[in-house]
């Protein structure tokens, strides 16, 4: 199973985009995208360099908040429990 963390599009140059996630920027290919991509969109990235899906901003921000909490909890050795 692969967990994809949404990355925000910073710039687009042809079939490549510059994306950012948790302060880390990288270039990804847009060749597998089946819909238009715009600056500010959130994308899921597979195999490290291929964008495969655009996700709604609300979902992306919710997922990023969850991952940020998970990282913070891991750093403080706190066990995550599902919310009711």
Topology:
Elements: E1 7-13, E2 16-21, E3 24-29, E4 42-46, E5 50-55, H1 57-75
Antiparallel strand pairs: 1-2, 1-4, 2-3, 4-5
Salient structural properties:
84 residues, alpha+beta, SH3 type barrels, five-stranded antiparallel sheet, 1 helix, 5 strands, 23% helix, HypC/HybG/HupF family hydrogenase formation chaperone, iron ion binding
Domain count: the total is 1
Largest sheet: 5 strands, antiparallel
Overall geometry comes to elongated
Count of β-strands: 5
Structural class designation: alpha+beta
* Rg from Cα: 14 Å
CATH-derived topology: SH3 type barrels
- What's the arrangement of strands in the largest beta sheet? 3-2-1-4-5
Average pLDDT for all residues: 87
Number of discrete helical segments: 1
Low-confidence segments, given as residue ranges, are: none
CATH class: Mainly Beta
GO molecular function, one term: carbon dioxide binding
Family: Belongs to the HupF/HypC family.
Protein name: HypC/HybG/HupF family hydrogenase formation chaperone
GO biological process, one term: protein maturation
Describe this structure in words.
- This protein has 84 residues and is an alpha+beta fold.
- It has a single domain, classed as SH3 type barrels, CATH 2.30.30.140.
- It has one helix spanning 57-75; strands spanning 7-13, 16-21, 24-29, 42-46, 50-55.
- A five-stranded antiparallel beta sheet has the order 3-2-1-4-5.
- A hairpin with a 3-residue loop joins strand 4 and strand 5 (50-55).
- The longest helix is centred in the last third of the chain and has 19 residues, at 57-75.
- The protein is elongated.
- The model has no long low-confidence stretch (mean pLDDT 87).
């Amino acid at each position: 199973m692969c967990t994809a963390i949404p990355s925000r599009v910073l710039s687009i140059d042809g079939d490549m985009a510059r994306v950012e996630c948790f302060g880390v920027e990288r270039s990804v290919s847009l060749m597998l995208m089946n819909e238009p991509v715009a600056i500010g969109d959130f994308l899921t990235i597979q195999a490290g360099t291929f964008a495969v899906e655009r996700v709604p901003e609300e979902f992306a921000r919710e997922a990023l908040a969850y991952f940020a909490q998970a990282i913070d909890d891991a750093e403080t050795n706190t066990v995550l429990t599902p919310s009711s």
